[in-house]
Design goal:
By secondary structure, this protein is of the alpha+beta class. The chain has helices at residues 48-54, 64-67, 107-112, 135-141, 152-156, 163-169, and strands spanning 7-11, 24-31, 34-39, 43-47, 69-72, 76-85, 94-96, 102-104, 122-132, 145-149. The two termini are 20 Å apart.
Length: 185
Amino acid sequence: MQSLENHFLIAMPSMQDPFFKRAVTYICEHNEDGAMGLVINQPIDVTVGELLDKIEIDNDKSQNAAKVSVFAGGPVKTDRGFVLHSPQSGYSASQKLSSDIMITTSKDVLANLTTAQAPEQFIITLGYSGWEQGQLEQELLDNSWLIIKADPKIIFDTPVEKRWEKAVSMLGFDISQLSPEAGHA
């Protein structure tokens, strides 16, 4: 099995699950036990500043970072936060996922988000997407997802409403020409 860590899952146009319709999911972990990822293009009606207020972390509302939307990362543990960010060490629970992307789950990163110590780029998700052993592989066989190597520019620099289209364009073909039927030769 080839790991899909540091790849995007792009929902096929035929995907009708309301949570994953036109979703781009960044895969943080994928091994024989299953997979874990964060949807990067489903904003919720909460800003970073509002989230920090809710969990009683002081923040500077005048900073642009306080006005950024928080994302629904997936349907699992929606009360748990994840920060995908450009590399910056010093947090108590961080993992480097690539040379351009880290994930931090500890509160210490949240206290920095509206300060000069914040990572250069970040997004916050609430919840994550999870697949049990073999589940993601089956969904791939069922033609639910397309896969491409993750591009941090899509996560951090592309407007949220264009992330699915931008990821699709990296595939190099017209997605409207794809059949929703899985082919098995």
